[in-house]
Amino acid sequence: MSDEQQRGGNDSGSQAGDDFPEKGSGDRWTDGPEVAQPTQQRPLPGAESDDAETLRERQRLAQLEMMDRWVGGVLTEQRRTRRWKLFFRLMILVIVLVSVTTTVYRVFLAEPASSLPSQRHLALVEVHGVIASDAPTNAERVIKGINRAWSSESAVAVVLHIDSPGGSPVQSQRIYSEIMRLREQGDKPIIAVIEDIGASGAYYIASAADDIVASPVSLVGSIGVIYAGFGFQEAIDQLGIERRVVTAGENKAFLDPFQPLDDDIASFWQTVLTQTHEQFIDDVQAGRGDRLSDSPELFSGLIWSGEQALELGLVDQLASLEQVARDQVGKAEWQNYTPRLDPFERLTRRFTQTAAELVGLRNTHSPLHFKAQ
Fold this sequence. Notes:
Layout: H1 3-19, H2 52-109, E1 121-128, H3 139-151, E2 155-164, E3 166-167, H4 169-185, E4 190-199, H5 201-206, E5 211-214, E6 219-221, H6 233-239, H7 263-288, E7 303-305, H8 306-312, E8 317-318, H9 321-329, E9 334-336, H10 343-358, E10 370-371
Parallel strand pairs: 1-2, 1-9, 2-4, 4-5, 4-6, 5-8
Antiparallel strand pairs: 3-10, 6-7
Helix pairs in contact: 3-4
C-alpha cells in the first residue's frame, strides 16, 4: 500500500471517530444507560376520533375539575374550623364578662353594712310583690333589711314601703313577729307606708308597725285566708282516665283535685282555715289595738280604699312617702336598706316563677294564702 493510501485510510478513520465517539470517551450524549424506544404511545382519554389537541384539553379540564373539588373541600373545612374558634372565643368572652360584672357588683354596688349614712334619714325597707319563701320578698331578706335599718344610729325611723297583695302566712308572720319585737324596744318608730296595695299578708306585716300611712286610693285590708283549687273528677271520668293514687293514711290525698271533696273533708279543711284566720285577726288586733273600729265586716276579707281604711282604723294617716320623710327629717330623702338581690339570682328567680306560672304551679309551697284575689 502506498503512503498516500495509508494517509487516506487514516483520514477516514479519524472522520468516523469524530462522528461516532466511542463509549467512555466522556461525551454526555453517548455516556449513560441506553433507553429503549417506546413501541406504542399511551392513548389519551377521549373518543378515538379526537385529535391530540382535543384530548389534551379534556385532560386539562379534568385536572381543573379535580383541583376545584379539592379547593372546595379545603375551604369548607376552614370555614368549619373558623366557626368553632368563634364559638369558643364567644364563650370565653361571656365568662370573662360575667366574672367582671360579678366582681364590679360586689365591690361597688353591693352596699356593706358599714357604709351607713351619717346624716339623719329615713331607713327604707321594701316589701314589694308576692310574699313567699321563693320570691324576692321573703322573710329572711325583709328581716335582714329591718335589722340593718334599726341598727343605724342616724336613722330616725324605719319605714316599711309596702306594695304587695300578700302571700304566705308563714313568711308574713315571721316578719310581723320581728317588727313587734323591735317595736317593744321603743328605740325608734316603725312606719308602714302603703303604695298601691297593702292587703292580706302585706297588711298583716303593716299592722305590726307603730303607724300605717296610705294614699286615699290605696287598697288596704283583705284580712282573711283563702284556699283555691279545682275538681277534675268528672272530666277524667268522661275522658275514660283512671286516677291511681296510693297513700299511707286514708286522708293523705284529701286535696287531690281528681277526687271528690266530701262533706267531712270540707268541714275539716274549713276548721284549718278558720283557725288560721283567727290567728290573723288576733295579731292585727295586737298591733292596732283600740284604733280598730268595731265594724262586723272588718275581718270579713273585704278590701277598702285608703279613705275607707282610715275610717275603719286600719290606717292612721293619708299621706305619701315624701310627706312622711319631710315630717321626720325635714326633706324628702331616704336611704334604702333592703338587701340587694344578686343579678344572677334575680334572673333565676324570674325564670323559675315564669316557668311555674306557665305550667300552672303556685308560687308558694303553702296551699293557704294571705293574699288578695
